[in-house]
């Protein structure tokens, strides 16, 4: 196979965000060699590229198959020895992480824009994961960005083409080297991993003995085949338990984001009261939303805390000592109370799963999560939607309670960290910048400290205001300006940051949380009622409505 060196022009905007390079699909489609440039830039940053093995797969969205073919040609020409690719190009993000670890690959290329819509007018994304199976750290993605800005050429074997729809192994000679492409079933290894972690037999008995009615909604993302295999075939739930299970290139025109707005179908069905447990996944299968009977919403922050408190219901944690917990800074402190109770270490990281990997690799932390519907453990180095659902099923089986009862029992023991998040999507970048500048100026002059903020008849005293700075306890790397925090004297908190996963404009996120003790008379009141004064205070301090021109958020979680 011939290797060509193709001349190209560098792009200045290939800076990976919170999780890879996410752009409107048209950016990849209409700009010459945009995709090729980025893949070549990734490869040039991999130590030991010659002779290495990489895993490649995606969430089934528009362009995934084409970009896999391009990746094959470019990887071959760059001296990669072997690619492991999911059949039909399908691999969930957690599956890629598991495969990298299982086959000791050097890394993996994941083709996904996660929860962002897909299709020619949606988004596409490319992300690199390192040898531990986790997202490349910022030092690595910064390097990719630097390389991309001056890239003058890429290497390609144009003659290589592989049938990725059929399982099989393909071998090519490139120069003096052999280049192998293994097309594997993207589901099998992942299912095997889940069977090592959970007691499938006892979950299966629980589902059948309680005639549990489940609804797993894959939102036409990557998780359909995984859910069918695990929930129906392995755990014996009937076929109606898995919906929107065929991965579609445009997610059926939907927004594959498992939250109360975009998974409304599921929420409405759960509200009818006929189903016991609902779960939704995002496009690439790393996020999850848990909904109980009658539409009882389990906040991701509570979900993490409940799994932490009940980790002994999961065989994996009985075998492997649990050493500590972690959460991203904007995530509520619900899990912190559990850590304190169990005498575990607790880590607070910036937003982004990439910050958890070091802690896990160093044996400091076993279980972690984020408010953005991500939960996971050290079985891999990505958040894992199906893992979270199986953890919940294990806990329900262990306690023989409904999801709502499990949460109520948890609050009555630990108290409740009531949490909500307001997202203002696709705000003009300049306007979003002004919001952050206003908040940063208030940090600078400390003018709000000690002030009393009053809304809806409640008053709060501002105790602290800063911009979160993280020093990685393993390698000492520093991440600055990871979100503006306003802490009040009663422990309540407001956090503001700009999303790093949008593809156009800016998304402002405002996170609000407040702690209620286990005996508080409002303990079980709706979060919206409890947090309404703090929301007003947050909007007043940040001036979001006036600066962004938005009277309402796009999404409330
Ligand atoms: C990614 C990251 C998560 C992060 C989320 C939201 O998730 O892996 O760690 O919490 O983005 O980030 P942001 O607030 O910057 O938009 P995913 O599921 O999109 O890959």
Automatic annotation (TrEMBL):
Residues 1-20 are annotated as: Disordered. GO terms for biological process: glucose metabolic process. Residues 14-150, 189-295, 302-414 form the Alpha-D-phosphohexomutase alpha/beta/alpha domain. Coiled coil: none annotated. One of its GO terms (molecular function) is phosphoglucomutase activity. Keywords: Carbohydrate metabolism, Glucose metabolism, Isomerase, Magnesium, Metal-binding, Phosphoprotein. Belongs to the phosphohexose mutase family. This is phosphoglucomutase (alpha-D-glucose-1,6-bisphosphate-dependent). It comes from Ciona savignyi.
């Amino acid at each position: 196979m011939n290797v060509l060196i193709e001349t190209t022009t560098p792009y200045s905007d290939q800076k990976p965000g919170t999780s890879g390079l996410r752009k409107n699909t048209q950016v990849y489609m209409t700009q010459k060699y945009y995709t090729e440039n980025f893949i070549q830039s990734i490869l040039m940053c991999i130590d030991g590229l010659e002779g290495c093995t990489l895993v490649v797969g995606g969430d089934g969205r528009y362009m995934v198959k084409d970009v896999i073919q391009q990746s094959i040609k470019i990887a071959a020409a760059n001296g990669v020895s072997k690619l492991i690719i999911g059949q039909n190009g399908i691999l969930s993000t957690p599956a890629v992480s598991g495969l990298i670890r299982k086959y000791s690959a050097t890394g993996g290329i994941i083709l996904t824009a996660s929860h962002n819509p897909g299709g020619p007018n949606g988004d596409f994304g490319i992300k690199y994961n390192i040898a531990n199976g986790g997202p490349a750290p910022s030092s690595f993605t910064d390097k990719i960005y630097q390389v991309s800005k001056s890239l003058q050429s890429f290497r390609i074997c144009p003659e290589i083409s592989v049938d990725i729809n059929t399982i099989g192994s393909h071998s090519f000679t490139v120069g003096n080297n052999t280049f192998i492409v293994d097309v594997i079933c993207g589901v099998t290894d992942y299912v095997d991993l889940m069977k090592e972690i959970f007691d499938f037999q006892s979950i299966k008995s629980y589902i059948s003995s309680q005639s549990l009615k489940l609804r797993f909604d894959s939102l036409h993302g990557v998780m359909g085949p995984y859910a069918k295999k695990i929930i129906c075939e392995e755990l014996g739930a009937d076929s109606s338990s898995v919906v929107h299970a065929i991965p579609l290139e445009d997610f059926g025109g939907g927004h594959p984001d498992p939250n109360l707005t975009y998974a409304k179908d599921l929420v409405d069905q759960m509200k009818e009261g006929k189903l016991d447990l609902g779960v939704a996944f995002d496009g690439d299968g790393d996020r999850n939303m848990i909904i109980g009977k009658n539409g009882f919403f389990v906040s991701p922050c509570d979900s993490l805390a409940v799994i932490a408190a009940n980790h002994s219901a999961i065989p994996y944690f009985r075998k492997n000592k649990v050493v500590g917990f972690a959460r991203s800074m904007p995530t509520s402190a619900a899990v912190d109370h559990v850590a304190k109770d169990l005498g575990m270490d607790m880590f607070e990281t910036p937003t982004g799963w990439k910050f958890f990997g070091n802690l896990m690799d160093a044996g400091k932390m076993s279980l972690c999560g984020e408010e953005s519907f991500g939960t996971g453990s050290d079985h891999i180095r990505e958040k894992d939607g199906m893992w979270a659902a199986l953890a919940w099923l294990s806990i329900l089986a262990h306690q023989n309670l409904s999801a709502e009862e499990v949460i109520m029992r948890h609050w009555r023991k630990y108290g409740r960290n009531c949490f909500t998040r307001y997202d203002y999507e696709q705000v003009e970048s300049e306007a979003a910048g002004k919001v952050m500048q206003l908040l940063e100026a208030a940090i600078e002059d400390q003018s709000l400290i000690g002030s009393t903020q009053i809304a809806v008849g409640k008053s709060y005293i501002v105790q602290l205001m800063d911009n979160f700075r993280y020093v990685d306890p393993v390698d000492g790397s520093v991440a600055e300006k990871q979100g503006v925090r306003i802490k009040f004297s009663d422990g309540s908190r407001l956090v503001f940051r700009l999303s790093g996963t949008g593809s156009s404009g800016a998304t402002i996120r405002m996170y609000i949380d407040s702690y209620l003790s286990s005996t508080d008379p409002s303990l079980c009141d709706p979060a919206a009622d409890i947090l309404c004064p703090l929301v007003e205070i947050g909007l007043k301090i940040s001036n979001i409505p006036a600066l962004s021109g938005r009277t309402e958020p796009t999404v409330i979680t």
